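tool=predict chain=A
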Amino acid sequence: MKIKRILVSGGAGFLGSHLCDRLVAAGHDVICVDNFFTSQKTNIDSLLGKKNFELVRHDITLPLYLEVDEVYNLACPAAPGHYQYNPIKTMKTSVLGAINLLGLAKRCHAKILQASTSEVYGDPEVHPQREDYRGAVNTIGPRSCYDEGKRAAETLFSDYHRMHHVDIRIARIFNTYGPRMHPYDGRVVSNFIRQSLQGEPITIFGDGSQTRSFCYYSDLVEGLIRLMDSEQPFSGPVNLGNPGEFTILQLARAVQKILGQKENFLFRELPLDDPTRRKPDITRAKELLGWVPHVDLWEGLAKTISWFKSIDIQDYRPPTPNY
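tool=predict ok
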C-alpha cells in the first residue's frame, strides 16, 4: 500500500473526525485542519498521540501551504443554526475555502474532494433527486449562504478541472447522523435525541410530514473514501446518502420508541425554504463505486442514542445562539 499525505479540512468535526479515524487506521499521514467553530477537540482525542496524525488550527478562508497527495474539503458549518449565525462567513468558507484548497491541489498535483450537499437541490420538484437535476433554489433566503456557497464551490471545482486539469471529486451528501454529532447542532436526529434524553418534548417544525433520508456515518465515510480512491476520474457530482425515506414524524416516533418513551411533541411553524421532500438517487454511486449503505435507520439510531447516553451533554455548549 502506498502511504499518502492527506489533508482533511474540517477534520475535527462530526464527519471529518470519523474520516480521519479511517485514514489514520489505514496508515496514511493525515493532517487535520480545523478552526473549531462548531467542532470538538474531543472528537480527535484518540488520534492526537498517533505518529501519522497532525492537527493544525487554521481557517481555510486564509491560504494554506502544505505538501499533500489528497485533500478532503469538509470544512463548513452544516447545520442551519450554525451557518445562519454568520451567513457571510459561511459563504466565505465555501467560496474562499474552495479557492484556497483548489490552489493547493493544483500546485501539489493532488486529488481533491469537495463535500457538497443535497441542499444544492433546494426544495426539489424532482423526486428522488438525481445528479443531473439542477434544483429549485432560493438565492436570497436565510438558507442561501449555505446552499449557494456549496453550489459556488461546485462551480469552482468544475472550472479548476476544466482549466487546470485538477483531479476533482464532488460528493453530494444527504442527511448523515451518528456518534460525535454536536448535541446542539440543530439537526433533527441530534435535536430529537437530546430533547428526549432531557425529558423535553420533541420540537417538530410543520406537521412532520416532510421527508428526509438518513445515512449512518460509517456508510457515508466509506462512500467518500471509495470516491476518492476510484481510478476513474470524476468531474460530475455523486450522490451519497441512504435512499430510505422517512417523515420527520416517523423519525421522532422511532427515537422515542427506542428510548421507551411516550409521544411528546411540540409543533412549530415550518422555517422558510425548508425542503418538503429529500431522497437521493444513488444509481451513479452503485454503478461507479459499488457503494450502497448497509446500516438501517433503527440500527443507526440505537447506536447514536447509546453514544448520546455516554456523554455529558453539559460539556457541550451551544456554539451559536441560533441552535
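The longest helix spans residues 87-108. The two ends are 43 Å apart (CA to CA).
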